Amino acid sequence: MKKEGVKLIENGKRLDGRGLDELRPIKMEIGVLKRADGSAYVEWGENKIMAACYGPREVHPRHVEEPDRAIVRVRYNMAPFSVPDRKRPGPDRRSVEISKVTKEALEPVVLTHLFPRTVVDIFIEVLQANAGTRCAGITAAALAMADAGIPMRDLVASCAAGKIDGKVALDLMGLEDNYGEADLPVALAPNKKQVTLLQMDGNFTRAEFEEAFEKALGGCLKVYEMQKKTIRKKYEV
Ligand code: CDP
User: Most buried residue, 171, 180, 212, 222, by CB count within 10 Å?
Assistant: First the structure.
């Protein structure tokens, strides 16, 4: 973020040909892993992300269980080969942060009180990354949870908006994230109209923030429509 010297918008088009309000191409599929209770694979631009959901199941270690509800546990992980410079395997500050905010983005929709003393485990594996992996990961995880049949009040859809060459734009890709001025990832439980993730990297004016927030919410709703279609498709005969 905030590196100078690269022109990101030319003749109203972005480097990949998109307009300011356009999402990258997105593909979604559920039920892709046999061993998991639920799973999803999401391609979002050049991001490739697998999510697996297990549970509700017995909690290990026992002392983290809750007597009156299920806990939701998330591990976000990047494959060493997912980025141009090899990513050192294992947790780092960034993956611990993304795991935490992802858990907080998903937990509000789960009917945890139905399954005391259990855990819903979610694993997000980033196979290829090109900016916006937390949004794509949350989107994939919500699909995996639905696929596992976890009782939920709502789905969670996620999308970011940012600022490039002084303009607010939807869904920044890698170069835009590197050379742009700001990024604002948002997650939304659409039926509850509840924002479950809101982070900001870089600088917006107040007006730009409001524009970016609205744009990101619009992106979440588009993603939500794709999620519903993906789930329905599995059950069509
Ligand atoms: O992926 P997301 O935008 O949610 O999180 P970020 O921390 O803003 O990372 C932006 C992008 O930087 C990632 O999607 C990767 O493409 C890239 N990245 C990388 O190249 N090497 C890393 N070790 C971490 C991130």
Answer: 171
